[in-house]
Automatic annotation (TrEMBL):
Family: Belongs to the IMPACT family.
Organism: Flagellimonas zhangzhouensis
Pfam families, A to Z: Impact_N
InterPro entries hit by this protein: Impact (IPR023582), Impact_N (IPR001498), Impact_N_sf (IPR036956), Ribosomal_Su5_D2-typ_SF (IPR020568)
Any GO BP annotation: regulation of translational initiation
Name recorded for this polypeptide: Uncharacterized protein, YigZ family
Amino acid sequence: MEQEDVYRTLNRPSTEILYKDRKSKFFAQVFPIQSEDDVKPIVEELRKKYHTANHVCYAWQLGVENPSFRANDDGEPNNSAGMPIYGQIQSFDVTNVLITVTRIFGGTKLGVGGLIQAYKTAAQLALNEAKIVEKVLETRFTLKFGYPDMDIVMRTIKQKNLNVVDQKLELDCELIISVRLSEAEQTFQLFDEMHTVVIKREE
């Protein structure tokens, strides 16, 4: 089976790692995120935690099929921090994550090449520490049917090993099922062919 509906991400934030280069300290960490709104509070929290830090640089990526991303240098020379961090997100093939690298300047300038290397290495070490998990992209369908069809619907759900998320079983029954994205089409057809069952994809 093709694996296009599986993606790699984190369930919980990674342990923070410290990378040092010529007395500059780089604290790096990976966070799971669900939307862009999750980013700002995390970055602000790090600014409070490391109030002597000169830069809190980061990169994030969201989504699987058409991912969106952002890289932020936070005052470091252009593309010397955010993009090297983002490069590691691509390299480890993870999504729905934010990687932050907080730098405390140690008095020696590293130069652009040195910065790129340091931010890249810190992000890489943080990802090495992270517990990366595989998740399956799913889609949800609502099934509506009369009580007499309960038996065949339930039998089909069991045979196909589908996951029931929610159910209202009265005279008019309603089920919400979740299905792997790669199996969505055939599941839809399966129930669509039962003429007494109404199936609708949830938005």
